[in-house]
Amino acid sequence: QEIEQLPDFHSVIGLGGGQALDVAKFIIWNRRVPLFQVPTAMTVDAAFGHRAAIRLEGNVRYIGWAVPEAVYIDVATLGTLDDRQYRAGLVESIKHAAIRDVEYFGFFEQNIQGICDKQMDLLEQIAYKNCSIKQDTPEPRFLFRFVRRLDPRNY
Q1: What's the predicted TM-score (pTM) here?
Q2: For residues 89 and 81, is the Cβ–Cβ distance under 8 A?
């Protein structure tokens, strides 16, 4: 009920990882205000995804839908992540590659040291490719069961 009592906004900016971005989507759900997403993690799933699911008050789940006006990505923010968070984002990116693009997977194999060293040019390429993959992924999520299948023709 606290969410329903939030004041009116002119726009909302979601800044952070997946949970923060989902909260921003949920806040604007059923409000006609622009949403701008600024992910600070390697993956962009939460920034581009339309669905927001957050858990409040124990096991009660609230689900909302929101499409961002724009997504702004600055890969320099990845330098603020500790190694555990950074690697967790890399795992998501590698998952994208394994599921959707064998050449992208090869990019990780060829550039793993530079990626682990957080070379900005490589991180920009990863961010761009993750965005491309996410934009090509159908929403809502229940369609993923068809998309997530590994295609043996790629291997």
Answers
A1: 0.71
A2: yes
